[in-house]
Structures are given as C-alpha cells and as structure tokens.
What we know:
Elements: H1 8-18, H2 24-30, H3 34-37, E1 39-42, E2 45-48, H4 56-68, H5 71-80, H6 108-130, E3 143-147, H7 154-162, E4 172-176, H8 181-188, E5 196-201, H9 208-223, E6 235-239, H10 242-247, E7 255-257, H11 274-280, H12 282-301, H13 308-322, E8 327-332, H14 340-352, E9 370-375, H15 376-379, H16 384-389, E10 396-401, H17 411-431, H18 435-443, H19 453-458, E11 467-472, H20 477-498, H21 509-521
Parallel strand pairs: 3-4, 3-5, 5-6, 6-7, 8-9, 8-10, 10-11
Antiparallel strand pairs: 1-2, 2-11
The chain binds 6-O-phosphono-beta-D-fructofuranose.
Amino acid sequence: MQLPIHLAAWQRLSQLAAEPQPHLRDLLDQDPSRAERLRLNAVGITLDASRQRLTPAIEQALVDLAEQSDVAGQRDAMFRGDPINATENRAVLHVALRGGQAPGPWGAAISADVGRELERMGDFAEAVRAGSVTGHTDEAITDVVNLGIGGSNLGPHMACDALEDLAHPRVRVHHVSNADAWALWRVLKALDARRTLFIVSSKTFTTQETLTNAASAQRWLIDQGCPPDRVSDHLAAITATPAESARLGYRPDRTFLFWDWVGGRYSLWSSLGLPLAIAVGAQAFRELLAGGHAMDEHFRHTPLSDNLPVRLALHGIWNRNFLGMPSQLLVSYASRLARFTPFVQQMDMESNGKHTHTDGTPATVDTGPIVWGGLGMDGQHAYFQLIHQGRHKVPVEFIGVLDEDTPLPLAGTHHRLVNLNMRAQAEAMARGRSPDDTRAMLNRGAPGDGADETMTAHRSFEGNVPTQLLWLDRLDPRHLGALIALYEHKVFVQAAIWRINAFDQWGVELGKSMAKALEQRH
Ligand code: F6P
C-alpha cells in the first residue's frame, strides 16, 4: 500500500498549493471555459464546481491522485464483496441492497437474499398501509414509531422528511432516537396505544438508547391496557442479530433482517428502510433503490475525470488537505432536506474520522472534515456572517432543487427567491467585495456618508471562499436515492485516497464502555 504523501500527484498538489493562486473572482472572469469544464451531470444531479479554487493544473493533479491511489481498483474490490472492512473482516455491500434482481459482482446468492428480505419488508409495509396490520383490539395501526439511533434513525428520518409529499394520508410515521424520556413521551402523549406499532431498529440489538426506549414503549402499551401477552402484536424488529431480538420476545414474522456486511450508516437501503416504505409505499422505496443503483452504475463505469463522486471527493481533498480547511459546511435550500446534513454527518464523520491508515500506522495526512450546516436560508441569518467575514476559511457545499412542486399558488415565487439566494451566496463568497469597491459604494451613499477607512474596512469582503452547487432536477425517491449514493461514494473515494478504513467505528466504543462502567458503579 502506498501512502498518499508518497504519491507523485500528492507532492505535485503540495507544490501547487504553495504557489500563489489567482483569486476566485479572477478565475471566474479570466477563464471562459471554466463554467463548462467544471460542470458535471449524472443521474439527474448537476454539479457546478466553477467556484472551487481550481485551475486546470490542479484539476489534472487531482485526477492523477485518484488514479495513483487506485480508486478504481479499490472501488471494484468493494463491489466484488472483498473484506475491505479489514478490522472487522467484513465485506461492504450496501450497494447490493439496491442492485435489483440482476446478480451484481457480489454474486447471485447475495442478490437472492436481498430480494427475499426486500419482498418481505415491502409486503409488511403495504399491509400496514392497507390497514390489515392490527393491534390487540384488532383495530388497524394508524401510528408507527421507529425506535433507533445513528444509522438506525438518521437515514429513515431524513428520507421520510425529504419525501413527505408522498406520506400516507392515514398512517403516520414517527421517529425517536434519544434516550431522554421526553423524546419518547412527546410522541406517545398524542397516540392511541391500541393503534400504535413500534419498530425497534437496531443492527446489534444491544444499543442501550434503543433498548431503553423499547422497554419504555412496551411498558406504556401495558399501562394503556394492552395485555402483556399481546404486546408483541405492537412490535416489529429490524436487525442483523435475530437471535437477540427473538430472545427478547419479538415475533419472527415481524422481524426483518439485514446483514453484517451492511454498515449502520449505510443501511437505509435495507430492511431498516421499513419506516420509509410504510410512509411512502413499497414502490416508492424501490424507486429510491433504483436511484442509488443508477449512481452506482455511474460510479462503476465512468472515467474518474468525469465521475461525480470522484470529483466531489477530490474537491474536498483539495480544500481539506491542501488549502488547510478543516471543516465542510453542507447546506440545503429545500426545507424537505433539513435532515440531510445530520445524515451526512454520521456517514462522513463516523466513516472518515480516523487516525490510522488501513495498515495500522498513524495517519500521515488529515482525514475526515468536520461536516456541519443544515438549511441554507436559515444559515444566511445565523452563521453565514462568519463564512463571509470570519477568520476561518470554510468550504461550502450547496444543495438545491430545480423543479418546484409544492401545491401553493405562489410556490413559484418562493422557489425563485430560494434558488436565487443559493446562487447569490455562492457568488458573493467567491467574489467578495474589495476595499476599493466598498469605498466607491459608500461614497455613492448619502452626502456626508462618505467612506472613511474604518467603515470601508468593516464593510469589505475578502471573498475567495470555495463553494460548489449541487442541483437535483427534482426531489423524488429516485433523485434522493442518487444523492445519498453520491455522498456514500464520495466518502468512499476520500477514504481510498487517504488509505483509511471508512467502515469500522472503533471510536464509538470507549464512551459506551465508560457508560457501562459508571452504570455498575452507581
Ligand atoms: O454510533 C455507533 C453505532 O454503532 C452506529 O454505527 C450505528 O448506526 C448506531 O450506533 C446504532 O447501532 P445499532 O443499529 O446496532 O443500534
């Protein structure tokens, strides 16, 4: 394994970063081919990277870095089912969950297992939606509460919000992750126990937050009149450890499986997507899978230079490792994507927040960035001040939706305002406003308001903040699936270049073991 710092492309990028670079406003004004060269479209998603601090020489060196890092070889090893999660000796095959019937590089046996569980999960989702799943009083379920945390919450919750326009008119889906009692009570206080189904989502079925919520929910059912021997009628389990869920009394016919080669933060595509399938229907869930699969095919078969996940990964590496920017601001301009940043936070930071290379030696490069953000329009009134005039330099990734379908008479007006702001923010961050332009602006103000140097300084903008825009043609299951897979593969490519394992998470265990030790002492 060659460490990244020993690659010729890495050393070339270090040289390029050390040279004075043109300001983004000059790159935008003096490079007529820029907009076209740095625009890329795949699976209904368009990237506009023209405001990244890139020159043709840097772009070429970045693609060389991907080539020299054997990104394609590492990618093919993942799709083949090699045990690339070496510290847990596991394959990484969330891509198989969305591979459809045609057996992929992972083989027909896995495709058959996946198809069978997808069928079971989809049938149960449709049964709930049809009102044929009933509780202890034989009344149809109207409320489904997903109890899960981390990857057992973030993906389903994000997707249910993003596809809220497809939500079932009668069956409501709720999500509880936190072990704080209020998190559960604020949901249960409005529900009818006779018509409530709890889905306990946990890959390991040992997560204390989820098991605490599950025990509390079962006690609530009983206190609300459910006979103890009928509690299991109000439960479903989603897990990779069915022996544990069976031991805890969950009915096998209400237990939906996935496998240890699916990482929690990559598990939305599996039976863990049951809450989403109940919310939007099995067909829409399959469209999400199809969108993810289409992005997989793009990732597998497109040359690295035109490969959307690869380009996103390379731009992030240029900003992180060569421009020395430790964080990544990720903002969405569609409010249905409010939970997309928290979802990506786990995917990126739990995958790439690592301090050793795959061979166990200390990391010789900076690894995963601090991913933060949320909704961009709110950010404009909250933390964008720091982005525009703060001392930190923070790269910004914007996600927007081109097609507006909200059934409001003035939806077009909203949409125009939102997308215009997204474009304007990226432009302002890139260009800034020089002291000369600021002084001229102030001098054009009211008489006597002439520019003094103090106000000119306060109201100037350095600019040169690297940003990129990702535009979804529309926000529907297929495009959401493609977007999620895009970010999964971006994280994969960065890990492949940094030579770290993106698929274990040993860093979460110390806190858990300390909590257990404290529990025993108190
Ligand atoms: O945060 C650690 C972690 O293991 C995540 O990777 C996982 O998504 C979450 O906890 C929940 O784990 P489980 O699905 O096993 O309850």
